């Protein structure tokens, strides 16, 4: 048997999407072929503490088994894992132990071959962890620093989409400081340019955390107060009577798009509860669309992926306006969830790529991207 690929999973995180990340990690651990990969978990607490756990040797049935104490022991008994000998805490101890150390072509028994950051939202999907991994010179799955940062900041994302010529909803973006300084101006601008109802979102968060629908001025003010709890910058978007269409993208420089899927939400809009808790939202895969329209949406998904210089994976979300069938891009998610209710792996399954093969592809793409970057020169002789 060839040497197993040593994969470090980083999950949890100091983010409003901590619980979502745990669900994603549990699903990924269960799906990996443990005869092909060695899985090494790194849990980040809600307070930002790093805890390296023992190597996982099989599926994990409860997310609590992925939450470790400072000594690397699972918070509850019953984890399918080896002994926790040598597990450390804190970023510095992880680097000092050599676990995250890597050099091209010189991997040792104590080093990882690739990192799979299963972190959603702040400090995980926004370019921060990607920057750390770049500095450590470690291969990792998913988008790089730039694409991650742009993909997380909805205001910057929308500017990139506008530059690419992708049609979007009417929106406004401003910081908490700007809002507090001149509420009257922003209320007037929103009511004139966007109107009610409208949606209010934190600029830098995902999984529909902190999103509200405002039907009048009082609800708008309350919605902005909610959004500013999660980020210093907010987005206000027009309400569009539309179908919600999603496409999965996979690849590096030559990405491919999955079939299109449609979300039919169990709630008034596709919020956190509808995504992760009640399991009642319907996913129509493939979406019932004319072939020409479906191909147009898939092409736009790849354009969006390339507009932010994406790599690895992304899910691109669209609105298909019911009034005129216009396609409006909503957002791109550079680290979509892999929970049982997640759209990304289901889209690829319907396209002909099962979950385990998808994970193989993501690892391969990460290693290929890393190898290509090692060919670059970083000094002038």
Description:
With 381 residues, the protein is of the alpha+beta class. It folds into three domains: 5-140, 3-Layer(aba) Sandwich (Rossmann fold), CATH 3.40.50.20; 171-238, 2-Layer Sandwich (Dna Ligase, domain 1), CATH 3.30.1490.20; 242-372, D-amino Acid Aminotransferase, Chain A, domain 1 (2-Layer Sandwich), CATH 3.30.470. The protein is 33% helix and 21% strand. The protein is built from twelve helices and 13 strands. The strands form three sheets. Strands 11-10-9-12-13 form a five-stranded antiparallel β-sheet. The longest helix has 19 residues, at 355-373. The chain is globular, with a radius of gyration of 21 Å.
Give the CA-based shape.
Answer: globular
Structural class: alpha+beta
Encode the helix/strand succession as letters.
EHEEHEHHHEHHEEHEEEHEHEEHH
CATH topology tier name of the largest domain: Rossmann fold
- CATH architecture designation of the largest domain: 3-Layer(aba) Sandwich
How many domains would you count in the coordinates?
3
Main sheet specs: 5 strands, antiparallel
Question: How many beta-strand segments?
Answer: 13
| Helical content band | 25-40%
Mean pLDDT level: 86
Task: State the strand order across the main sheet.
Answer: 11-10-9-12-13
Note the total helix count.
12
Tell me the name of the CATH class of the largest domain: Alpha Beta
Rg from alpha-carbon coordinates = 21 Å
The N- to C-terminal Cα distance equals 43 Å
Unreliable stretches (pLDDT < 50, length at least 5) are: 83-99, 101-109, 269-278
């Amino acid at each position: 048997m060839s040497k197993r690929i040593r994969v470090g999973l980083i999950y949890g995180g100091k983010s409003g999407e901590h619980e979502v990340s745990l669900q994603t990690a549990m699903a990924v651990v269960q799906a990996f072929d443990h005869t092909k990969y060695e899985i090494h978990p790194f849990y980040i607490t809600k307070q930002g503490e790093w805890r390296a756990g023992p190597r996982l040797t099989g599926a994990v049935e409860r997310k609590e088994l992925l939450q470790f104490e400072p000594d690397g022991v699972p918070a509850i008994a019953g984890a399918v894992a080896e002994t926790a000998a040598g597990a450390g805490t804190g970023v510095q101890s992880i680097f000092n132990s050599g676990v995250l150390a890597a050099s091209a072509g010189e991997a040792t028994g104590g080093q990882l071959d690739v990192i799979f950051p299963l972190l959603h939202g702040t400090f995980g999907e926004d370019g921060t962890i990607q920057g750390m991994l770049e500095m450590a010179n470690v291969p990792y799955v998913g988008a790089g620093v730039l694409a991650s940062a742009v993909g997380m900041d909805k205001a910057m994302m929308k500017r990139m989409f506008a530059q690419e010529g992708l049609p979007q909803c009417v929106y406004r973006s401003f910081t908490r400081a700007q809002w507090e300084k001149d509420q009257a101006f922003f209320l007037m601008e929103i009511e004139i340019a966007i109107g009610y109802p409208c949606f209010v979102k934190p600029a830098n968060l995902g999984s529909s955390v902190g999103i509200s629908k405002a039907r009048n001025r009082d609800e708008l003010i309350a919605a902005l107060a909610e959004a500013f709890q999660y980020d210093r910058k907010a987005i206000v978007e027009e309400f569009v009577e539309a179908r919600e269409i999603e496409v999965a993208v996979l690849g590096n420089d030559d990405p491919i798009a999955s079939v299109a899927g449609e979300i039919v939400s169990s709630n008034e809009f596709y919020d956190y509860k509808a995504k992760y808790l009640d399991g009642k939202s319907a996913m129509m895969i493939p979406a019932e669309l004319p072939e020409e329209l479906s191909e147009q949406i898939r092409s736009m998904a790849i354009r969006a992926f390339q507009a932010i210089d994406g790599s690895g994976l992304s899910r691109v979300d669209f609105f298909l306006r019911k009034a005129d069938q216009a396609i409006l891009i909503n957002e791109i998610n550079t680290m979509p969830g892999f929970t049982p209710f997640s759209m990304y792996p289901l889209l690829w399954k319907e396209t002909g790529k099962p979950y385990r093969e998808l994970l193989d592809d993501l690892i391969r793409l990460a290693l290929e991207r890393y190898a290509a970057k090692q060919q670059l020169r970083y000094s002038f002789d």
